[in-house]
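Q: Trace token order:
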Amino acid sequence: MITIENLTKRYQNFTALENINLNINPGTIGLLGPNGAGKSTLIKSLLGLVRPQSGKARVLDFDIFSQYQQIRQHVGYMPENDSYISGLEGVHYVAYCAQLCGIPANTARSRAHEVLDFLSMGEERYRPLQSLSTGMRQKIKLAQAIVHDPQLVLLDEPTNGLDPEGREEMLQLIQNLWKKYQISFILSTHLLPDVEKICQSIVIIHEGKILAHDSLEKLLAQQEENFIIKARGNLKPFLKELQKQGIHTTHLHGDEFKIQNLSQSLPLFQIAAKQNVEIRRFQKVKSSLEEIFLHTLNLQKNHEE
């Protein structure tokens, strides 16, 4: 679906993308990174909105340098910032965007209504764009991104500014693009729970470099097992001894701790017995995407040092 080879984009003395190499297959992809990591620059490069200095890339087998117009006909884009035309009604704006993609006027109007129905947008579609709530404006942005029935949609921070209910609704709508219509999407965000909820594979980018790219399942499997323990007794020497053994502990609350780097459970119980500590709870817990993300960034930081 997307192939990228040695793609580099600089803004004067700042390198936004540095020798990016990626092969992305159809599906649901999360593009993760802190603010300023290069996520938006990568998306805009794939759309031909910014021109990298070097490298190659193809989107749906179209070249980003010479065939960017064809890319935009087959790819939807939901930008982070509002990009509506003030005074225009929502449905007319979506129909206008459909026409820009080459859909005839009559078909564009009916297609706009179909898409807004899919997004559960009622009479609000007839209101001027500037009068709509943040949640409704986000729906309009999503509508214009999918009105031309694209094969791929690029979403830049689609849940920005939404309350918890609106965020959940937006994520469900995005997820249905793939589940119901097999429209692939790349979700660019710094909100890890959003990606963990609806994405099959993950790309982690930091300071213009790709640090990780794999399925979420495989990335989680690569993480060391974590455990929650509840202990009673003289905990200070117990925790100190665990640290000496390379077993990392994090205090959660009360007498509960999170245990990492535990290859076998036996040493833990031996140390506890020696320190007269009673282990009252010992439970394996699933690693989170946040842990993968922080671990990946820490590995890169240690490598640079």
Observations:
- The mean pLDDT is 90.
- The first strand starts at residue 2 and ends at 11.
- Residues 2-220 form a domain with the Rossmann fold fold (CATH 3.40.50.300).
- The chain has two domains: 2-220, 224-285.
